[in-house]
Amino acid sequence: MRILYYDCFAGISGDMNLGALIDLGVDKNYLIAELEKLNIEGFHLEVKQDQRRGITGTKADVIVENQDNEKHRHLRHIEELVNGSSLPDRVKINSLKIFDLIAVAEAKVHNISKEKVHFHEVGALDSIADIVGAAICLDYLKVDKILSSSIQLGGGTVKCAHGIMPVPAPATAEIVVNIPVKTGLVNHEATTPTGAAILVAMVDEFTDKIDFPIIKTAYGIGNRDSEVPNVLRVYLCEDTEQVKDVSTANALVLESNIDDMNPEHYDFILEQLFNAGASDAWLIPIVMKKSRPAVTLSILCKEELVEKMKEIVFTHSTSIGIRECRVKKNMLRREESAVETVFGSVRIKNSFFNGKLVRSKPEFGDCKKLAEKHKVSISEIEKAVNKIAEK
Questions:
Q1: Distance between CA 186 and CA 237 in Å, rounded?
Q2: CA 252 – CA 254 distance, rounded (Å)
Q3: Most-buried pick from 12, 139, 239, 333 (CB within 10 A)?
Q4: Pair 354, 310 in one domain
Q5: For 224-245, how does the pLDDT look when each residue is reduced to its tens digit (9 = 90+)?
Q6: Inside any domain, residue 335
C-alpha cells in the first residue's frame, strides 16, 4: 500500500504543496500540460530548486503575468471554469471539493451565502492553479491513502483583503474545525486557507504517528526565510505489512425526523448530500406523534463535512432540527478490477475478509450502459461478467 504523508511541522500553502509533490516525483511538464486544460491565460508555472536553512527542495511559483487585469470570481465562475475543462473527472471533483470548503468558510465568516462569496484570494489565477494543481498532482501520484500530521498554523497577524487579522485567518480557522492543529511555532501565517483546504479535502486521516517504512522524502519550499525552515515535508511510504482486511475510521451520523415534506423532494436532497461528499445517506419510514407517517433522513459523513451536510438539510428540506452522534466505521478492504466481456469492459468491486475474497460485484453503471448500447438485459451483461470473473 502506497501512502502519502504530509508532515506540516511548518505549515502548508498552495505553492509549498505543489513544490513538495513535484519534489516527490510529479512530472512538472505533465502538471503544466494539465493546467493548460483550464483554457485560461495570464499565468505560468516556474519550478526551480531552492533552499531554506540548509534544506534543499523544490520551489513552485505560479506567476501571474498581468496583475492589473486579474478577475475576481464567485464560486459559480470557478465551477464553470473547472467543469468546462478537459481535465479528468476525478481531478474536477477534487478541485471543486477544495474550492467549496473555502467558499463555505468565507460565507460563514462574512454571514452570507457561499454563492455570494467574492473570491479574491481563491478567485486569483495563482490560487486557481494551486488548487487545481494539487488535484492534478495527487491524481498523478496514485497513492492508496493520504495521511497528515497536525497542522501548524503559526501565530501573530496576517494582512489580507479585509485588513490586519489574527493568525489563523478567520477562513482558515473555519476550515480546520475538528482537525488537529498546533500554533505558535512561528510568528506569521504558517498555513493559508488554500493549504488548509487541500488537506481537509484530501487527507484520509490526521495522525502524528508514522509506523510504516518511508521510501522517499521531499520538500516544498516556501517564500519566507525564517528561523524555522519554511518548508513542507512530505513522505512517500510503503506499508509492507500484510494488508488489513478490516479498517476503522471515525465518522458522524446526522438524523432528522420529517413529517411535513413533499416526498418527491427526497431524491434531490439525497443527490445533493452525495455530491457534497456524504459517505452514505438513507431514508427510514417511521410513525410520529398523532400516528403521522414520517421519514427519518440519515447521513453518514466525515467530521469535516458535518456543517456542509447540515446546510443542505436545512436548505432543501423542512427539517428544523438535526441529531448528531459520533460512530466508528468498520470497512472491508476493497479493490477494483476490470474484465473484458463480448459487450465491453466492466469494472468489478472486490471485497476481502481474512485474506479471502468474499464478494465481487459488477459496477451497475457500466452494466447499464452496455445493456443500453447492445439492447440486451442488465442480467445478461452481469452473467457475462461473472462468468469471466470466476475464471
A1: 28
A2: 6
A3: 12
A4: no
A5: 988 899 999 999 998 765 556 7
A6: no
